[in-house]
């Protein structure tokens, strides 16, 4: 085992189990690592020891509890707990803490930074300096998870490469590049690893889930009394953002509805929802969401009556997103434009 220091800390299993659990201390260390260069916490190995106690077993639900407790007490902190079995048969938790892109803090506004083997509080002008450093490292270009560029999903990679080469927004000279060169050109990969934008668009399901901020979409339909009557969720991270748009459009049965209107001797079918408008709504939510923070995208469907527009009450429905997103991924801009998901100035496309 490595000695405790800038990138590593060890804690007894008692710090996360039972009445002796000190979640605030664990959160402080996670925030300190996240605000520095990232690091690991070995939970279940006592200070000064190289291995966990022989025969030590980790409760099956402890990793989920750790995720929940840290998420409840911190902001902009992602943790990746993994149960490891040592050579002596004892188990411990390797809690990886990636470097935070936004400034990490407790929910009550306290900041910490890892200095040598201690988690030091950050105060005064140091908080502003910490925030300024974060702006220089965009989320989408980071390779924190160290996923090899060869670990892409072949189907997703093929679809993306074909779409970029078929796009009229991509220069002919760019279309001539190889797949690896296109990954570098659009900053989907850095060196031998996929960047986080590359993982989001081209990674395997488990890799996308490890990003912790990969988009989740919820569709909720309400009746006239404001009661929920249907709910659909896309939260298994099997789809990248481009595939999510198609899945939502095809998966919501309400989007298939039509109204029949008189048209002389015939009747005309009018779609209840314009496909272009729905897709633009989804693209706006996906492109403009802040990927440094967790948060689901909600599509809320409400019925509305406009009785004065027609001779009889004409039912229509309003679809709205539950959040308003204002930040665009800057480094991923050229890639989004090539995919026709965004105009150069920032406006999204249907």
From TrEMBL:
GO-annotated molecular function: helicase activity
Occurrences of domain Schlafen AlbA-2 (ranges): 19-122
State the Pfam families in the record. SLFN_AlbA_2
Keywords, in A-Z order: ATP-binding, Helicase, Hydrolase, Nucleotide-binding
This chain belongs to the protein called: ATP-dependent DNA helicase
Q: Which organism is it from?
A: Ectothiorhodospira haloalkaliphila
Q: What is the lineage of its organism?
A: Bacteria, Pseudomonadati, Pseudomonadota, Gammaproteobacteria, Chromatiales
């Amino acid at each position: 085992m490595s000695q405790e220091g800038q990138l590593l800390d060890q804690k007894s299993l008692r710090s996360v189990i039972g009445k002796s659990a000190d979640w605030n201390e664990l959160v402080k260390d996670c925030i300190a690592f996240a605000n520095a260069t990232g690091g690991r916490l070995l939970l279940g190995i006592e200070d000064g020891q190289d291995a966990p106690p022989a025969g030590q077993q980790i409760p099956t639900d402890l990793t989920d509890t750790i995720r929940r407790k840290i998420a409840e007490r911190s902001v902009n902190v992602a943790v990746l707990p993994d149960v490891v079995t040592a050579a002596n048969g004892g188990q411990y938790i390797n809690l990886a803490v990636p470097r935070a892109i936004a400034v990490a803090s407790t929910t009550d506004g306290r900041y910490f930074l890892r200095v040598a083997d201690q988690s030091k509080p950050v105060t005064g002008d140091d908080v502003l300096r910490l925030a300024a450093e974060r702006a220089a490292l965009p989320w989408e270009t980071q390779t924190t998870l160290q996923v090899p560029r060869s670990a892409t999903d072949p189907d997703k990679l093929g679809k993306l490469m074909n779409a970029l080469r078929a796009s009229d927004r991509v220069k002919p000279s760019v279309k001539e590049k190889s797949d690896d060169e296109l990954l570098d050109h659009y900053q989907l990969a850095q060196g031998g690893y996929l960047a986080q934008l590359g993982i989001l668009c081209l990674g395997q399901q488990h890799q996308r889930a490890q990003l912790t901020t990969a988009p989740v979409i919820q569709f909720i339909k309400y009746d006239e009394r404001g009661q929920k009557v249907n709910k659909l969720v896309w939260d298994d991270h099997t789809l990248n953002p481009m595939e999510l748009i198609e899945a939502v459009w095809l998966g919501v049965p309400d989007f298939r509805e039509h109204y029949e209107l008189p048209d002389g001797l015939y009747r005309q079918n009018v779609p209840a929802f314009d496909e272009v408008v729905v897709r633009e709504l989804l693209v706006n939510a996906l492109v403009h969401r802040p990927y440094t923070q967790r948060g689901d995208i909600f599509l809320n469907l409400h019925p509305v009556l406009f009785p004065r527009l027609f001779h009889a009450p004409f039912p229509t429905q309003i679809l709205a997103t539950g959040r308003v997103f204002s930040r665009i991924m800057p480094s991923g801009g050229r890639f989004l434009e090539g995919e026709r998901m965004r105009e150069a100035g920032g406006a999204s496309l249907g």
